[in-house]
Amino acid sequence: MMEKIFAYLTFRERLQVSHTCKLWHELIFCPQFCKRLFLYLRSSKDLEKPYAREMLARCRNIMIMRSIYEDPQLRLLKDYMKGASLKLLKIWASNHTAKRLLETILEVVPELRNLHLVLLGSLDQCTDEIIRITHQKLKRAVLIGHGNYTIECSKLTVLETDQVNEEMFQSLGCLQEQLQVLQLNGHRHSSHRAAYNVLSHYHWDHLRELELDGSTTDDLEESLKQMPCLQKLSLRGSQQIFTGKEVGTRLSELKLSGYCVDTDSFNRFLTRSSLKRISLLECTCCSAEVPLKSDSIRDLILDPMFQKRLPLFLSLEKLYLKGRDDTDFHHTLLQICEYYPKLERLTLYVGPGQIGMMRPTPDSTNVTATNSFSLLNKLDKLKDLHLNRIDLTGIDWTICEGSNVNYIHLKGCSIDGTGAEKIVRTFKHLRTFYFDYCYLRQPRADLFDIDKSSTDGLHWLARYCKISYHDIHIEELLELRIPNILFL
Predict the structure, then answer these.
(1) 356-372 residue pLDDT tens
(2) What is the pTM assigned to this prediction?
(3) Of 384, 375, 382, which is closest to residue 431 (Cα–Cα)?
(4) What is the dihedral of CA 176, 177, 183, 187, to 10 degrees?
(5) % helix / strand / coil in the chain, to the nearest 5?
(6) Domain F-box spans what residues (predicted)?
(7) In sequence order, what DSSP letters do the residues of 385-451 get, joined into one string?
């Protein structure tokens, strides 16, 4: 019971009440609390603060910011962290400082699983020092910045780096039999062929996910032949033409960023491939009239829409769709209902600084034309509905009677109390209703019933539904500002 009470205290409040007695001290810094805590060391002087020894020994997540650590501070840090149950270590420092910190810490934290290293400074400031990363249980390493690394980690399965130099080339040769996820972004600082040379030079028997940041896919097909188990491929380009023939047909997931898709060639690739999920981010299309087609795709992300016609993926189950404030969401929903009869999860999203419109057309007598959401009744299998940054005021939700949706998540949306009431009354299967960063408007903003004191609010109307609010604003109730607390 005491641990649950202490869970509501801030870190400073915990430090204050921990002086009460030894029992409270142990409860305050229980393993459950320290497991969630992220400790920041912003300078070497933080080692002199009270509880520095205790927090370094107990915290599972530690970030060491840019600072200079001399020999006395390094010895103190090593003493404090010896045998610590650290799981995640982040270091932002210069090459020399990062090298000394890793030499000090890695040998005394046997349970470390994740390492995130960011080397500060430009290429001209990069020294020839070799940063050696040696650990028996490390599973994931993220290495960012200009540096020379050698990696000796027998359990490492995930590696992300933006350096593809001679030292990294040799380290990857030692890791080729164990890596399952590899992200090579080194050709931002060197020739793109450096990464492809690494990939084609070794045989990657266990590699399942690969991410490349390059300017061409000319050598990609040859490199992928060395990866018999590859399932997920992510490519970032600069509006190069992408046809699909570069990646083969074995993949189950493909993510493209910044490419121009050759529709005809890509459709031929989709016919032969076994893709289940595809993400098209900031992509364009060579033909605006010819839609993409596939019978195997189950999961689609379009960010943003680049054609007036949505892809014809008849087996689609999950759709994430980003539009703009001028996107015709009514026409979009018409296509969704026509093309995706098996859809189970729908996310409609508008980017930051924009608001999507869903308001009814007052002059129309057609129900479908006046209320786009009436189309949801045609999606019998739809269960999850996510709407981000869309104005929902004035929507008559009663037209959705009969929908099977049981989960609704509104983020950054405007909605009035009357509309929210109609949602909980209309969607009979609704069990979860989230309002995140929403503007709750009149009329009947009192129905949102934040403190659950009303007998006619949403909590009373939907007693079997979990309703929660996070950082919301209520119109004309300016004195009530909800903090970042989840209400169940």
Answers:
(1) 887 544 544 454 555 77
(2) 0.83
(3) 384
(4) 10
(5) 30, 25, 45
(6) 3-39
(7) EEEESEE-TT--GGGGTT----EEEEES-EEEHHHHHHHHHH-TT--EEEEES-EEESSSGGGG-TT
